[in-house]
Amino acid sequence: MALVAALAAVTAAGALARQTSAAAPLSLLSKDGRRVLAVTLVNDQEFVSLDDLAATFQLAVHDEAGAITVSYKSKTIVLTPDQALASVAGRLVSLPAPPARSGRRWLVPVEFISRALAPIYDQRLDLRKPSHLLVVGDLRVPRVVVRYETLGPSPRLTIDATPRAATTVSQQNQRLLIAFDADTIDVSLPIVQPQGLVQAVHVVDPVTIAVELGPRFAAFRASTQATDTTSRTIVDFVTTPAATPAQPPPAQPAQPAPASPAQPASPLPPPAGPAPELPLPAQLTPALRTIVIDPGHGGDDAGVVGAGGTKEKDVALAVAHVLKSIVETRLGVRVLLTRDDDRMVALDDRAALANNNKADLFLSLHANASLRPATAGLQILYAAFEAAAVKAAQDAGGGERLPTFGGGSREIDFLLWDEAQIRWADRSADLARTLQDTMTGRVALGPRPIDRAPMRVLESVNMPAVLVELGFLTNADQEKHLAAVTYQTTLAQAIFDAILKFRDTIGVAP
User: Which among 77, 61, 92, 26 is positioned nearest to 482, based on CA atoms?
Assistant: First the structure.
């Protein structure tokens, strides 16, 4: 038997070795500088070594009695090799995968840092997995999103920084420099096809973005805007006039001959003045660019708590992390979480995050409760408004026409903050029905799978938005399901399939 067990262990180790490979390292930023943590792919899931984490964060790791204990000062994390769960100072949190053995080392999913280590560590740990970045301590590392728009007479560069960071825009020869007042930046850049105005946009140092200018560049105008959480820098470009072809000498006066049907009329000369930028082909503009996932509650607000101790805030966050990973991996779009750890976020801040980042979709995740323990099933809600508010919004009609830089004008819609969702009510209802279709037959649905209700978290969101009650924690069987990683993954996959189905209608004005 011992020989069989040894052979089985060797076989398992060999299988793991064949399934692992190196991945892009994790950049760790702290006041002491920058270093990297090696990342290993195990079955397409990113893992880091517990030994590396122990050396970096002064942890003590013990492997005994079928459990792995990670200690930091007087606090402990307990892992079980075959479970995607961690006990963090006595509180259960979910992980995307259980620990994995590689030779003599234990590997844990990268999310172990934000979900298990961060709650017990005495400095802030901010894991930004899409950027392969880990910020340690109170460094100023804003998330910076850059967009380049060529529609209209004045091409524009828009730079959003969250949290807010002051910028300075300057020109050095054929280059614009946008410098941020920060320790470093976590930046997402657009793909710019080289043309006469802008040749490229890239990062030149930890806090500076450069815009390489082309021969048609003449001047620029920069302005800034700020909200509670985000600062926006707008750079409008002025182009040089297009060269006007030399005109032929005037013709001698003569009676023009009638044009022959076989001969096309001479084309009109091109108009003088700046040549407009051509819009990108419609097929190159993705219908879905940004999704905001809102895990409900957090921090001191646990939400519903089941009889077994499962908390709504933990279930919502666990499903949100799985859904974010699936969407980013399979669609390659930007996914923002209103919270990526156990902290409280104000309802208006959740809506502001989605609105400021011009999200195309907003999904709020929650768990339900009932006085009847037998009540179970998933429910999808979208916002309801009083008839008077809807009529007032409809009577308001369009917005106000305001002049734009470079000439002309455009109509600007003015929306009341707490009524922004009214214009998206029909789209949100469509999204709710799409979610119901993809959930049917895969998860248990409630007696009223779709309903409308006044909901503060949705009323200020200016895009299609729904709230998904993932199940009832007051139902003992459903509580067990909602706490299980496999069921959380099933929920996330079903929501992802609904996003795919709904994608073709996202981004079209209502």
Answer: 92
359 in a structural domain: yes
Average of per-residue pLDDT values in the chain = 81
pLDDT greater than 70 at residue 262: no
Q: Are residues 365 and 498 in the same domain?
A: yes
What angle, rounded to 10 degrees, do the helices at 476-483 and 485-502 form? 80
7: in domain = no
What are the tokens at 418? 């707490």
Q: Which domain holds residue 106?
A: 17-136
* CA nearest to 178, candidates 224, 141, 140: 224
Name the domain boundary from 102, 136, 170: 136
Q: Are residues 231 and 115 in the same domain?
A: no
> What's residue 450's pLDDT?
95
Q: What is the pLDDT of residue 177?
A: 93
pLDDT reading at 340 higher than 80? yes
* Burial group, residue 213, by CB count within 10 angstroms (0-12, 13-18, 19+): buried
Same domain, 325 and 234: no
- Give the count of alpha carbons within 13 A of 52, CB side only: 19
Contact 140, 125 (CB under 8 A): no
Q: Are 417 and 449 in a shared domain?
A: yes
For residues 346 and 452, membership in a common domain is answered with yes
Q: Which two tokens stand for residue 41?
A: 């792919």
Verify that 39 and 59 share a domain, yes or no: yes
Quickly tell me which residue has 């009676």 as its tokens: 255
Residue 311's pLDDT is 94
DSSP category for residue 429: H
> Could you tell me if 121 and 181 lie in one domain?
no
Report yes or no on 255 lying in a domain: no
Share of the chain above pLDDT 70, in %: 79
Antiparallel, parallel or unpaired: β 67-72 and 75-79: antiparallel
Distance between CA atoms of residues 359 and 285, nearest Å: 15
Ranges of beta strands (E only) in 95-216 are 100-102, 105-109, 125-128, 133-136, 143-149, 156-162, 167-171, 175-180, 186-188, 198-205, 208-213
Give the position of tokens 């090696």.
Answer: 38
Cα torsion angle, 312, 89, 335, 146, sign = positive
Domain count along the chain: 3
CB within 8 Å of 3: residues ≥ 6 apart: none
Hey, what are 422's tokens? Answer: 């009214």
Q: Which of 389, 377, 392, 384 is nearest to 446 (CA)?
A: 377
